Amino acid sequence: MDASAALPKTEKETEKEKKQRRASKPKVKTGCNNCKNRRVKCDETRPQCQKCVKSGRRCDGYPAYNPRRDGARPDFVTRILPAPAIRPRDSNPSNSDRSYSISSRSSSSGSSASPPRIPPTAVVRRRPERPERPERPERSERPERPDAIRYSPIHAAPSISLAFDSQESLYFRLFREHTANELSGFFDSGFWTRSVLQESHSEASIRHAVVALGALYKTLEKASESPPGSPDSDSWEDTAPDHYNFALQQYGKSLKRLREALEGGETRSPRTVLISIVLFTCFQSFIGDHKNAILQIQAGLTLLEERRAEQRQPQMLQSPPVLEDELVQMFTRLAVQAKSYDMAFHFPAPYVIRLNPSGFPSSPSNPSSPSSISSGPSEPSIPECFETLQEARTSLNSLTERIMCFSEALSTFYGGPSNILPTFIRHSGQAFRASLDNWSEAFEPLLESRRNIGITNTQRAGINVCKMMQLMTAILFWTGFSLSEMNFDAFTAEFRFVVELAKEIVVDEELSLAAKRCGSLNKCRHHQPSYHQSLPAPFSNEDAFNHIKPSFALDLGIVPPLFVVATKCRDRKLRREAIRLLVSSPRREGMWDSILSGRAALWIMEIEEEDLPPYHPWSADQDLDSADALPSDDNRVMVKEILFDLQKHQATLRCGTRGLQDTSVADARARETSITW
């Protein structure tokens, strides 16, 4: 051995060797797709790589960051969570082939709307326990709600020291501090911040469901975080699949505890069962299991109807406890959500929601004429002016549900295609049209106040959402009596207002998050004014929503109204703005997924505009208001059905002629495609 090899190297020799050594760094897999295919280093500028822009190439965007560890893992894209890739199995083999129902005493009476089956308990093999990490404060991308509950001696935080292990307690705290407010959407909801947490004290099934939702929230946060090196990415070693698998375990425990209680004859109040149904619906909507979410909602509506029937019985010696209005309102909103989804995508049976399975006011048994289905139930009480947003929202939800019940009854009686009603019975809905007008007048002062000093972004968004929902309900109800898509052209002003209100919400979110993450747009590395200013309206710089991350809320917001604009408004500029808002700010509102809705609307638009000249919004010579710029009646279609493949993030979409009466004749406009999101 050369003795010189054992001698320490001089500083000069070490420096020389360091310069000669080739740099070695971990491979980066977060560049844009074009640069990866060309095998060149990407500058990772968002949303368009500057290398592609300067070279005249089209930047196809960035793949989702998906770190690999512990072998192959499921892909988690930066959208909204998928359903489990493998159906969870019951820990008890003897139970693996059984199904269970959330039911009540009369569930076996042969009702056509029987409660749904609960899937077998979801138990996923648990990973070896890791050493416990030091606790760290959680972050939320949305500004803290000013009226969120602060836990005090009056509203004490639930004690979790005896109920949970250390890992479960972390997710429970995450739910309490962040998820509960996120699930409320644009409105304050004591249901999530108070009722659910209170019930979790005494009900193990609800505790585990709460933990599962907290884990899903963390999954979404990890799946949508920025690539490594971004200022807002954290140093946690765990990944989205870790939190997702834990959420599945907790969901399985929740189902198992409730099933054991029901089978063991333990008494469970209707309140407990209904809260459980809401939590299960929320979980299934979060992961994209829309069909089971609809079945859960139908079970809750059936139970509520049975409770109302019991309370109407005069011979009962002791009246059952009255369910609080908060829980009833929750199911009203879920019913509206499920029915709106069914009206848009036309799910096959048994996933068709029935709002009133027991009879009129929505489904008379054997009506002999339209007069037996008059203007529907008594008109909801609408004041001259709403004092609060909550009052206006409750009134609108009740009115919308009544309108949907009325339309459901008429559709059942007349049996029209795709729930379209005959024109000659339009007079039957005059009372509801008057109610919608009265609501709009009473809401006007609140609508005008949305830009007042002191109104928060959340309050402003709630006001906008209420108005958007009222406009959507009015448009769909009145056009529901027509067999022609041309009648939607009369509502262009309403469509424009919906887009304006939605854009206010999304822009407020973007500016708030940009200020929180980057301080100002001038210093924001996500903002490229030189690029966005070169784009024509509506693709201007305010539409580049680079800071908005995927989100989930159980309540409806901007997605359904924008979907109506994108599919029913034929103004070429407006419908493109609606599609842009849907796909550029990914969110799931209950069962409504913005990316799926935007892709479906884009396909409908392309079909209808096949015979039109190319759309050039920057051309002064193009008259967008002329009849020639609108699709002809022969080219217009409506969504007929959508079938999901959640594992591949694909859907099969079918469209065709509106109101086609003769099903024996082939539909010349029928199309089918597969879309991804």
TrEMBL record:
<dbReference type="Pfam" id="PF11951">
    <property type="entry name" value="Fungal_trans_2"/>
</dbReference>
<feature type="compositionally biased region" description="Low complexity">
    <location>
        <begin position="91"/>
        <end position="115"/>
    </location>
</feature>
<keyword id="KW-0805">Transcription regulation</keyword>
<keyword id="KW-0539">Nucleus</keyword>
<feature type="compositionally biased region" description="Basic and acidic residues">
    <location>
        <begin position="9"/>
        <end position="18"/>
    </location>
</feature>
<feature type="region of interest" description="Disordered">
    <location>
        <begin position="360"/>
        <end position="383"/>
    </location>
</feature>
<dbReference type="GO" id="GO:0000981">
    <property type="term" value="F:DNA-binding transcription factor activity, RNA polymerase II-specific"/>
</dbReference>
<dbReference type="Pfam" id="PF00172">
    <property type="entry name" value="Zn_clus"/>
</dbReference>
<keyword id="KW-0238">DNA-binding</keyword>
<feature type="region of interest" description="Disordered">
    <location>
        <begin position="1"/>
        <end position="35"/>
    </location>
</feature>
<feature type="compositionally biased region" description="Basic and acidic residues">
    <location>
        <begin position="129"/>
        <end position="148"/>
    </location>
</feature>
<feature type="region of interest" description="Disordered">
    <location>
        <begin position="55"/>
        <end position="152"/>
    </location>
</feature>
<keyword id="KW-0862">Zinc</keyword>
<feature type="compositionally biased region" description="Basic residues">
    <location>
        <begin position="19"/>
        <end position="28"/>
    </location>
</feature>
<dbReference type="InterPro" id="IPR001138">
    <property type="entry name" value="Zn2Cys6_DnaBD"/>
</dbReference>
<protein>
    <recommendedName>
        <fullName>Zn(2)-C6 fungal-type domain-containing protein</fullName>
    </recommendedName>
</protein>
<dbReference type="GO" id="GO:0008270">
    <property type="term" value="F:zinc ion binding"/>
</dbReference>
<keyword id="KW-0479">Metal-binding</keyword>
<keyword id="KW-0804">Transcription</keyword>
<dbReference type="InterPro" id="IPR036864">
    <property type="entry name" value="Zn2-C6_fun-type_DNA-bd_sf"/>
</dbReference>
<feature type="domain" description="Zn(2)-C6 fungal-type">
    <location>
        <begin position="31"/>
        <end position="59"/>
    </location>
</feature>
<dbReference type="InterPro" id="IPR021858">
    <property type="entry name" value="Fun_TF"/>
</dbReference>
<dbReference type="InterPro" id="IPR052360">
    <property type="entry name" value="Transcr_Regulatory_Proteins"/>
</dbReference>
<dbReference type="GO" id="GO:0003677">
    <property type="term" value="F:DNA binding"/>
</dbReference>
